[in-house]
Amino acid sequence: MLATIRRMSILLPALAVLALPAAAQSPAEAAVGLVLDTFHEAASRADFETYFSLFAADAVFLGTDATERWDRGEFMAFTKPYFEQGHGWTYVPLERHITIGSDGVTAWFDERLQNDNLGECRGSGVLVWEDGAWKVAQYNLTIPVPNALAGEVVKRIREQADSIGS
After folding, report:
1. What is the per-residue pLDDT across 97-143, written as a single tens digit (0 to 9) for each?
2. Under a CB-based contact definition with an 8 Å cutoff, are residues 10 and 92 in contact?
3. What's the pTM value of the predicted model, to 2 decimals?
4. What does the domain layout of the chain look like in residue ranges?
5. How far apart are CA 41 and CA 34, in angstroms?
């Protein structure tokens, strides 16, 4: 019962975003949006197979820490122990923008996301048409820092780097 309630609390906000009127969304944009929604849902469920089936063969995932740059294989190795324990991560889309390249086989996106631990985040990246489907070629997860706080955040990052000798 609790698992069902948790899934509903995850899916209802995402469905609300999907129900918003799309401004003349093309079929390709809708398909890319569906891939991204499935991507987030699979991560939330810790569904390793579905999640990584959505990555291009040469995909790269960039995490919120400056050291987090993984190719597909590295990210699979990092993720597998968490997913095997049923620990995924939930990012609920709040807003999304998709652009399909003139070649028809490349798409760029940026999205505002909500996460319980990190608050509002931004995901951006590229999808490519690969083997008859849209695949995530690059995903970049960031934590937007308000300009008014940027100086303090940079100062703290530098202090941390200095304290560990980097």
Report:
1. 999 999 999 999 999 999 999 999 999 999 999 999 999 999 999 99
2. yes
3. 0.82
4. 2-163
5. 10
